[in-house]
Amino acid sequence: MRDRLAEHFGAEQVFLDQDSIPPGGRYPDELRKGLADADVLLAVIHEGWAAERDGDGVRRLSREDDWVRMEIETALRTDKTVIPLVLAGARPPTADELPDALREFALKNAFFLSPLDSEQWVPRQEALIVKLESHVARSWEPYPPSEPDRSPVSGRWLAVGTALAAVVVTGLAWVAAGDARSKPWPALVSIGAMSFGLLLVLTLCVPLRGAFNRFEYWLHGVSERTRLLLTSGPLIVFFLLVLAVASNLWTGEVEPGVVLFAVVFAFALFRMAMHIVQADARERERWNQWPARLPRRVPRRLLRRTLARLEERAAGWTNPLTREQRDKANVELMEIEKALDRLREKTERSRLRWLTEDMPGPFGTYMVWITANTVLTLAWPVGAVTLPRVAAALASPLVALATMETLYRHQLWLRRELQAEIEPRRAALATTVEELSSPVRTKLTQPSAGRDH
Hints:
Layout: H1 2-9, H2 17-20, H3 27-37, E1 38-45, H4 67-77, E2 81-86, E3 111-112, H5 121-133, H6 155-177, H7 185-205, H8 209-221, H9 224-231, H10 233-251, H11 256-288, H12 300-314, H13 323-346, H14 351-358, H15 360-379, H16 387-436, E4 451-452
Parallel strand pairs: 1-2, 1-4, 2-3
């Protein structure tokens, strides 16, 4: 029974006198400490337990210095949960069979075990574990989020900052456009750059988004070591390039510009190597420190990687799960479910909320850019306001609206695809945990450092 409880709750959670007392430990002190730390005391009742006598013929329970009596009496006095564990062939003691200090013990509801060679032995063991889980608290806490939970920028402050920047830029643009020697090329070039940005967004967010999403899904589904090996490909290219430049420099056949190029690539090589080392360290930390709370604003890569790690763990689990495995898996599944709920909420947001909450910086910058282009185009001293000038002035807001609409629809598509990908995988993991946890356990209790005694 002790072995099965230790397997389920953890060896450090179960105390059994001589097995749990270290060599050289002071027996009375260790027993008192074990009892003080315990949430539950299991008093094993064998046949003839209440009438058992010592070598002098004195009934053990009548001796005030008997350790079994002292432990039960202390547990009753300190309001511990005390369960008489009745072995096959025995019966719970009656109040008349117990000393006055232990009479309360006779009123405790007993749990009956089947014979060790009976087919009901294992089911009764599991039934006892279910009962104990409602009394024994877990001994761990979920770790805090591994990434900072950044709060969205206040819409009021974003509006104030954008308006002030737009006023300043408008004044500067008006002064620049009022110079008779100035030309309208800066505004046209700016509008052209904005249009090129729209073209790039359309290319990446329409025909290529499916390929990028599939690659990201596959990349975060493999093990972290495989992912690092794949992403280190550019490192090899950079290293070979720097090696080639270094060999040419040794022979004196290289230009200064090539040397500068090699230095830049060497710096990039160093930065990427540092990134790989840090990413590997973070992955090991997240593997060891689980389950971790997810931040409120969960990046796609973090949600995918959390699920992939849990799938990797579950692949090595056997039936039955320990309580720690099951509870930790359920906490992580709960965190993933909360992230999915927030993902569903985000798909229902308006365009303005999406811009101000997810893209406050680009949104404010784009508004200021539109203002500058419009002022530069309309205020240029080239005569009366003509249709081409009006069209040029309208180009910036139209291009900006098209860009933002494309990005908004792209984000909606990404979130819906992520939701459709994560939900069935999470449901499959929940089913696996439930099947490996048979019979069904009770709900999680509050954490403490208590143990079975």
